Amino acid sequence: MKLALVLLFSFLINLPFGWLRRNEKKFSFKWFLYIHLPIPLIIAVRIWLHLNPWFIPLVIAAAVAGQAIGARLKFKPEPS
Length: 80
Known about the structure:
By secondary structure, this protein is mainly alpha-helical. It has one domain. It has helices at residues 2-21, 29-36, 39-48, 56-72.
């Protein structure tokens, strides 16, 4: 149950950051910031829930998936 909560949190917290990152120049300060800003929150939740460090790769995968899907989200229709 704890693992599912951390994975869901990691995924959901990265969706808006992926969406913000998509319009930034690659390797710019904002691009770097949008990728790394959610990391302390995810670490804090993982520690708070006493999740075993063996699950860190799964948490990272959920974060990357959140960033990738967030970068593809469209809130307004793009003009054709």
